[in-house]
Amino acid sequence: MVKVFIDCFEKMILKSEKLLREKEVSSGGEDTIELDLEAEFSSLALDIIGFSVFNYNFGSVTKESHVVKETDVENLQQHDYSNLKDASLIQFLVDMRGVDIDDRQARLYNLLLIVGHETTAASLTLNVYLLAQNPEKKWKAQAEVDIVFGEGAHTNESLKKLEYVTL
Fold first, then answer.
1. CA 17 to CA 102: how far, in whole Å?
2. Hey, how many other C-beta atoms are within 10 angstroms of the C-beta on 76?
3. Which helix (H) or strand (E) holds 102?
4. Residue 1 CB burial class (10 angstroms; 0-12, 13-18, ≥19)
5. What is the spatial distance between Cα 5 and Cα 51, in angstroms, rounded to a whole number?
6. pLDDT at 160 over 80
7. 2 pLDDT exceeds 80?
8. Is residue 68 classed as helix, strand or coil in its secondary structure?
């Protein structure tokens, strides 16, 4: 599970670094460059939930793919969604995976996907803001992460070693 988090996060970092470089060049050397962290965290959370819960790559962080890829469109067009009681994104994902779920499960998956990624994005944004307002705590958190993770592999066991930064 940690690998999913790390893979998605690394994609977000690469995208953010590229975006910041582009903005730096286009800003003509201005000191302030804005980045919409809530939007970035929303994409990150959507991809993590997509991989973790649905085994599906939304490609939200990298914008490299759409929710429904062209290869899947043909399969989905064979299904008449206009007559479905639940013509939701979850129903599309379920159909693409070839499994059946009941209405209750579909509602729960919709809730998890929509509320889960938005809440996560808001929480991450608030945490970054609070760390920016408290440099001592930011440095303490950064030092712990550097010590625990260093250059080694990130595992569930590594996460358990975090004391100051907890999940």
1. 42
2. 13
3. none
4. exposed
5. 9
6. yes
7. no
8. coil
Note the pLDDT of residue 140. Answer: 96
Residue with tokens 């760390």: 131
| C-alpha distances out from residue 85 to 80, 111, 115, Å | 11, 17, 21
Give the orientation angle of helix 89-97 with respect to helix 70-77, to 10 degrees. 90
Q: ∠ CA(99), CA(100), CA(102), 5° rounding?
A: 150
**Residue that the structure tokens 């064979």 belong to:** 78
CA distances from 133 to 64, 89, 117, 129 (A): 34, 38, 24, 6
Can you give the pLDDT at residue 127? 94
- Which pTM does this prediction carry? 0.69
